[in-house]
Design a protein that fits this description.
Layout (H helix, E strand, L loop, with lengths): L1 H30 L18 E12 L2 E5 L9 E8 L2 E6 L5 E4 L3 E7 L1 E2 L2 E2 L5 E8 L2 E9 L4 H12 L20
Antiparallel strand pairs: 1-2, 1-3, 1-10, 3-4, 4-5, 6-9, 7-8, 9-10
Length: 179
């Protein structure tokens, strides 16, 4: 009889925790309602320059890898294929919306050891920084085969404009850029 009470108490605590997590996610969705949806992939993005299977980790606010972007399914982890095309980067996700990052929105790519609850070995994640409307975001991807990380980083880096507009400093009065 006493053990049934403990089981009921444990189940009640679990139910409250799940309800609080759902409430938190719903509030995050409401706070991020102004975040634009990523563009739809073009009908023909061009030939595949490089492709790697792996896991789409999440998209977060740039530099704040704990601030997951929940809207438009960008915060949902799942299996995916990252494909680099001349027009941009495509994350074809299993069971979720495809994420397309146009070439002109790419700003940086790097390796990291983790983001938003996914922590792996040193430099185990490929993190792509890009512009989503006026917001700078980071998208994490873990390749299935470790040898593919460097190749994916190189393929994405080759797409990044050599002088992205958001990395330029304003001109000085003499017309030269500040260093």
């Amino acid at each position: 009889m006493e053990s049934l009470g403990w089981v009921a108490l444990t189940l009640g605590i679990i139910a409250v925790l799940v309800a609080l997590m759902a409430l938190g996610w719903r509030n995050r969705l409401r706070r991020q309602s102004d975040v634009p949806a990523p563009p739809e992939p073009p009908a023909d993005p061009g030939p595949v320059l490089y492709e790697a299977a792996g896991q789409y980790v999440a998209t977060t606010t740039a530099g704040d890898w704990l601030d997951r972007i929940a809207v438009h399914g960008l915060g949902l982890r799942g299996n995916a294929v990252a494909a680099v095309h001349p027009d941009g980067l495509v994350f074809a996700r299993t069971g979720a919306r495809t994420v397309f990052i146009p070439r002109t929105d790419l700003t940086a790519v790097q390796l990291a050891s983790g983001m938003t609850g996914k922590f792996v070995e040193k430099e185990g994640l490929v993190v792509v920084t890009w512009r989503l409307g006026a917001l700078r975001v980071d998208t994490g991807f873990r390749t299935r085969h470790p040898a593919h990380k460097a190749q994916l980083v190189a393929a994405v880096a080759a797409l990044i404009p050599s002088d992205p507009p958001d990395h330029r400093t304003p001109p000085t009065p003499e017309g030269r850029e500040q260093l």
